[in-house]
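Supplementary Note 2. Why include the ligand at all?

Several targets in our set were suspected to adopt different conformations when bound, so apo predictions alone were not considered sufficient. For every target with a known small-molecule partner we therefore ran a joint prediction. The input for calcium ion is given below.
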Amino acid sequence: MDEQEEVKVKNPWHRPVLIFLTVFIILGIVIMVSISVVQNKPLPKKYKYGIVLDAGSSHTSVFIYEWPAEKENNTGMVRQIHTCNVKGKGISSYNANPDGAGKSLQECMVEAKQKIPAYRHSETPVYLGATAGMRLLKMEDETASEKVLASVEHSLKTYPFSYQGARIISGQEEGAFGWITVNYLNQNLNKPTGTLGALDLGGASTQITFIPQQEIESGDNSIDFRLYGNDYHLYTHSFLCYGKDQALKLSLSKKLVSAHAASKTDPIEVRDPCFHPGYNFTRTVQSIFDTPCMKAVNISSGIISHVGFGDWSQCQQSIRKVFNTSRCAYSKCSFNEVFQPSVYGKFGAFSAFFFVMDFLNLTSDSLAITKQKLEKYCSTPWKKIVENYPLVKEKYLSEYCFSGTYILTLLEDGYNFTSENWQDISFLKKIKGSDAGWTLGYMLNLTNMIPAEAPDTRLMPYGGYVTFMIFFTLFIFVLFLLACLYFRQSTRKAQKGII
Ligand SMILES: Nc1ccn([C@@H]2O[C@H](COP(=O)(O)OP(=O)(O)O)[C@@H](O)[C@H]2O)c(=O)n1
Ligand SMILES: [Ca+2]
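The joint prediction is reproduced in token form.
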């Protein structure tokens, strides 16, 4: 046995074998690390696309979305890359000329073809959702609304995309998908953080959606979702006819009816505190009553003289008359006998809430200051307003005093916001570059891009994984070297002992 050990210690091949082994191991580690880096390198990003047309009461917008093909189910991955505003009015205005509705989409759809790479066209879904303007047309003339939808369907099918349907979405869908959009973009859905309520103001309807702290007493106002493994129980309501354009007609019709009762002049003069002093515009009675939101009235004169006198507090009084708050069959209501729990948490207010408040520079003041500023704005003479904003169309310019006052009254008297929680409302247009609105949520839902359960995630991110592998391999290598060193020393000791 001693003889054998002596032979081993004195073996002349011992050192070259050790060197060879070390080089071999280093080479092995280098190869292993290189393969792991190459293997796990992220592939060049490929994108997928989706198109949603928001056929609103006042106009149609085309939204193009993009997302990395391999990360479909991760939250916050879809982003808006382009919008196109269709020229002219909303599709519901083509009731007498349905073919025009489809044709109106042409320019924006051609633009969509240019924005999306051709190899993706055939797999890019296109959805059209129509909101309150078409809901009203359907109530007024169902055949006309079907013809308009058939016309936009025919038009959308002529493009190389994957047509997925054109339909009137319900008020609940409009509210719920707006809520999903803002919370998806804020990446609230897979975290235990609070969610953001959604306030959407259109021309013909308005939506309020949030997670309440109390029970939802009416089934129509309740919506349940399971998203990324969390259950959401939402309150939502859509008020048809309470978009800002329809609300203006409601309010004007009430003023017209009382002016008609009091005055014998022809045309009837309607004095309006919601329009600037010096504003004077001739309207037809028909232009106010051309909506199913009101019962037709028997007013002989076809013409009214609409005269402004700019008094904010009287304007608010007149607007309060369009909200019926006298009856409520639940523990609490917003207005028109609609159940609404107390508003709770933070809210994002978008669409016309933002356009109007942004124009009036009222997006970040307290409720008291907001009222003061609005009062001053409404009392500014019309001549001065026109001078101050030469680039804004007079029709839009004339309505901001009404719209601002309507927004305040809707939020305070309608939804029961107070000066304490006014600052919980953020007036916003976009979140991280994508418009707040129902379209993104609608597409995410229809393409199943928000899973009910949280997707499986990797143990560690790519960079962390590679770093870990390199350090771990080096660690093992160092251990190996130490072992070799130890082996060498112990054999030397053994050698000395023998000699
Ligand atoms: N730059 C803009 C764009 C729209 N708007 C208004 O925002 C509202 C958009 O409503 P909409 O067409 O989406 O109508 P709904 O179908 O949602 O009721 C209309 O009242 C437009 O006049 C605005 O005030 N400023
Ligand atoms: Ca809208």
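The mean pLDDT is 92. DSSP finds 16 helices and 16 strands in the chain. Comparable summaries for the other entries are listed in the accompanying table.
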